[in-house]
Amino acid sequence: MERETLLDEPADFWGGIQLLHSLDRFFDRALNFVIIGYQSAGREELARVAAISANREQNRPGARLEN
Fold it and tell me: CB under 8 Å to 57, separation ≥6 — which residues?
């Protein structure tokens, strides 16, 4: 059991460290793009709802009389 956990060469160790670092960077970037996309979609949805609301307000009966 102990023999299976020991690395044969230091290169194996550093290769594993590099792999972990690459995976860490990959998931950091993936999460970053997910957050950016989520925020962008939220802003677009907010703008869409505001436009619909403004359009409804303009088309409301009596809206021109108040202005």
Answer: 63
Q: What six digits make up the tokens of 39?
A: 């925020």
Q: How many domains does the chain have?
A: 1
Range of the domain at 34: 29-58
Q: Is residue 33 part of a domain?
A: yes
Which distant-in-sequence residues (6+ apart) come within 8 Å of 13 by Cβ?
A: 7
Cβ neighbours of residue 16 under 8 Å, at least 6 residues apart? 7
- Residue 34 in contact with residue 27, Cβ under 8 Å? no
Task: For residue range 32-58, list pLDDT tens digits in order.
Answer: 999 999 999 999 999 999 999 988 888
* 34 neighbors 42 (Cβ within 8 angstroms): no
Size of the chain in residues:
67
Reported pTM: 0.58
